[in-house]
Amino acid sequence: MTKLIAIINVIAWAGFWAFGYIAVTSEDLTESQLVVAAILAFAGLITGVLAYMKLVRSSEASGYAKGTNQLDAEARNRAQEEWEK
Fold this sequence. Notes:
The structure is a single chain. The protein has helices at residues 2-25, 31-62, 73-84. By secondary structure, the chain is mainly alpha-helical. It is elongated, with a radius of gyration of 20 Å.
């Protein structure tokens, strides 16, 4: 499943850059073609970010990547109470 998400991630970012470039640089597009290119670029951006976040979460869960240094709720509350003193 991770490989499928990685493939989706690559395709989504490629679509974002390709259609984004077309939408920004092309001078001879009609308005409807420009809107379609911008929508496809936005869809690639959203899909790419979501797929990337899913890959990061799965790699941290599997132990492949080091987890983030976020505190759990109990440690965060204890630190907040100490700071307020």
